[in-house]
């Protein structure tokens, strides 16, 4: 019942280029089309990074500042449907963050229902304030929806704090930390097995998730589905 989405590539930064964004989106839609009761999505990666965010190198290679800005805006717009798919996916989702998750990589992790992280390696980092790049509206709304602590959001978004595993767990950003890659992998599988064993109706699960984040659904241009109470 598991769908395992693993970010791979020649560079272990797993930058979200237009091609990578398209591949991730296609994979999520494939998982959605095959979902059954008890399905669970696990997202992870290989190497030192979970994802180092949008491919700024590709944007900067455009040749001029205006063209670079156009490329960056294109990636921001292209990444939005990934966030939407994860909010609409009819199954529980688990991000197993075994390395650094920066900018859109942090956002990608935060889109999942559960986030697990290593305590010995990797940070969560929103680099936009350091790079001088404004935040897309749906990034900001996602942080408000997913991180309850005002000071944690402030430090992440306005201070560019690099948050390690233990602090992320203390702040309620992640659901657990493990001391090694193997322990983290095992914890992710165990959590997925526990979720899959409940055999929930994926469409109902999706509707309940949507109802938790109405502002985010609105910014993403998604209507909140109305549940069909067919089993009463």
TrEMBL record:
This protein's GO CC annotations: peroxisome
Pathway note: Lipid metabolism; fatty acid beta-oxidation
CDD domains associated with the record: crotonase-like
GO biological process, one term: fatty acid beta-oxidation
Keywords from the UniProt entry: Lipid metabolism
Catalyzed reaction equations: a (3Z)-enoyl-CoA = a 4-saturated (2E)-enoyl-CoA; a (3E)-enoyl-CoA = a 4-saturated (2E)-enoyl-CoA
A UniProt-annotated Pfam family: ECH_1
Annotated protein name in UniProt: Delta(3)-Delta(2)-enoyl-CoA isomerase
Source organism (scientific name): Linum tenue
